[in-house]
Amino acid sequence: MDFDWPMALGSFLVAIVVGLTGMGGGALMTPMLVTFFGVSPLAAVSSDLAASAVMKPVGSAVHYREGTVDMRLVGWLCLGSVPAAFCGVLIPRALGDGEAVHDFIKLAMGIALLVAATGILVRAVLSRRARPSGEEDGRITVRPVPTVLVGAVGGLVVGITSVGSGSLIIVALLLLYPALKPNHLVGTDLLQAVPLVLAAALGHFFFGDFQLEVTAALLVGSIPGVYLGSKISSRAPAGLIRRLLVIVLVASALNMFGVGVVPLAWTIAAIAAAAAVTWLVGRRKRDTVPAELPDEAGESGKRSARGRSMAAPDR
Fold it and tell me: Left, alpha or beta for 153 (phi > 0: left; psi -120 to 50: alpha)?
């Protein structure tokens, strides 16, 4: 079979998104394989997980070198996610027909992703008025039990659908640790996904529909793509990563709801355009407001000085 270069190119583009945001691997890669390249759903899940088992370490290594990984969170997440991911591969077989379970998880994830995207936008607006405690240095207090549960649920979903190692877990981390910096959020999520995806890939290798030719094309495109995205993400401004997270969250949610390719593309383009306009308006306001403050402060200082000089003879 000839090597599929278009599939490798598609994998490269998706991997850039994964490196930038820590999300979108399963939520974008698996639908791409099924929709554009006619790969069967089970083979797409198995091959995507096998490729992710190689792709995730590349992106996480970049973040680890840059110091944008919280190893405490990684340890607690893996404690729950690794065994759950392997068991998740076996659940559809135990149920006989996993289609109903798959549809339910897609619907629940779509709702959760939209809620998370809304939460990020609201938090960004509120942070302009009052920065959350701990946001300055990114220090957080780890909550072991909720973190392990997040890992277990995420691992279970990944084992069944290949979706969730980035999208589902990163949403939960946002809710549990709002003070975690965006680049640390992405780096932590990428590193914790390494053993998670390895466990799920191992299960699919034995019980799934692993196809070497599909996995090879995914690896050729995803390795350089995730490296490029991770290099940008580890040094990118926090505000830029937040905007990208919102776009990927909404795109993944619409995909979970079964939105077609063309409407999905137009929706993403509209969201990106709205984000760009919002950023330009916000930047214009930031450029104009500080210019007025020094003048006001100067006038206030002059008035205070005149008041003191006029009051001096009375004393």
Answer: alpha
- In this prediction, residues 310-314 reach a mean pLDDT of 46
d(CA 85, CA 197): 8
Task: Supply angle C-alpha 157, 161, 165, rounded to 5.
Answer: 55
Which residues have C-beta within 8 Å of that of residue 174, sequence separation ≥ 6?
116, 119, 120, 180, 185
pTM over 0.85: no
CA–CA separation, 260 and 305 (whole Å): 67
Among candidates 273, 255, 256, which has minimal Cα distance to 264? 255
Q: Long-range pairs for 259-267 at CB < 8 Å and ≥24 separation?
A: 261/35
Decide which of 301 and 3 is more confident. Answer: 3
| Residue 112: other Cβ atoms inside 10 A | 20
For the chain, the residue count is: 315
| Sign of the alpha-carbon torsion through 126, 132, 135, 138 | negative
Query: Do residues 259 and 48 touch, judged by C-beta distance below 8 A?
Result: no
- In this predicted structure, which of 71-80, 199-208, 247-256 has the lowest mean pLDDT? 247-256
119 Cβ contact list (under 8 Å, min separation 6): 174, 175
According to the model, what pLDDT value does residue 244 have? 73
Are residues 23 and 63 in contact, defined by beta-carbon separation less than 8 angstroms? no
